[in-house]
Amino acid sequence: MDPLAVHDLSPLGSVFAAPGTTTVLHAGDNDLVHLKRRHGMSFAALFDTHVAARFLGERALGLDVIIRRYLGLELPPSRQRDDWSARPLTEAQRDYAAADVLHLFGLKDRLVDELGRVGRLTWVEEECAALASQAVAERPPDANAFASVKGARDLSPRGLAALRELHELRERLALAADRPPFKILQEETLVRLAQALPGDHASLAAVQGCTARVIARWGDALLAALARAQALPESELPVLERRPRLRIAGAVQRRIERLRLWRAEAAPRAGLEPGLVLPNRLIGAIAQAGPRDVAELAAVEGVRRWRADVFGTEILAALASA
To answer: How far is it, in rounded angstroms, from Cα 34 to Cα 47?
Structure first.
């Protein structure tokens, strides 16, 4: 089935939401956001093989690597750099696309067995349940989103105007193509364009990230956006306000430092990535909340029951030492 030829995905939604149905995917965060936001889908249950592999302590998390390790199979050579909007698809592309999902159920079974053996199956089930239930709100338009791009504050006012035009253009192109914005152009490329301010196709080609395919598809639109920025009078150029430095209370900062020290010791002991044991966002949230027992710790948004059960006593001790 050609996904570009399918305009109504609602029949899939009823399958995903049916009680007793488990949707198996690999590193499906972006796919889930897209399906929920754009198509209003919900999922009765999920199993993400990428999440499962992380809880088994795997460091190389590509699907081809995980399938080779747990199933002893080789996937076809990667076609990720191909232009998947071109038609017809080649036989190699069809083989690659099919193989990308063909072994997921078998991989799930192997990972479930291994997770059960090491006592971490319930951890993964809780994480996957959170993925399934996580609400995804429609992003409201933000006219100042360009200001948050890394490197924006190093640009001249004229460069900022160019970045604003390019950022708005990328959002429109992504919406029209039904793709994530970073799949149109990386933010680093937007900043390079805003710095260089190219005026023709030859100058565009000299900017890193502006490939021949990018120029063929969007070169004229990019040049038009840059021309609009160049034509603005000085009085209309954007100026970024100085961001106030966030003040963190001394007690909270001490808790953050203690939690980071604890994590650095606990992660290798558990054989897990530090960010899986305790993500930075949770370090800040826990430090702010200052829980006094495991129940209060578990009530902090995102902590999860498995984390409170396994590491709760140690986390509370780290907080107390601060």
So the answer is: 17
Around 313, how many Cα atoms within 13 Å sit in the side-chain half-sphere? Answer: 2
The CATH fold assigned to 147-236 is: DNA polymerase; domain 1 (1.10.150)
Whether pTM exceeds 0.90: no
Burial category of 250 from C-beta neighbours within 10 Å (exposed 0-12, middle 13-18, buried 19 and up): exposed
pLDDT digits (tens, 9 = 90+) for 62-73: 999 999 999 999
Q: Can you tell me the distance from the alpha carbon of 174 to that of 57, in angstroms, rounded to the nearest whole number?
A: 35
Q: Identify the CATH assignment for 250-321 out of 1.10.150.80, 3.40.50.1480, 1.10.10.10, 1.10.540.10.
A: 1.10.150.80
Q: Where are the domains of the chain?
A: 3-133, 147-236, 250-321
Read off the pLDDT of residues 198-252 as tens digits, 9 standing for 90 and up: 999 999 999 999 999 999 999 999 999 999 999 999 999 998 877 676 778 899 9
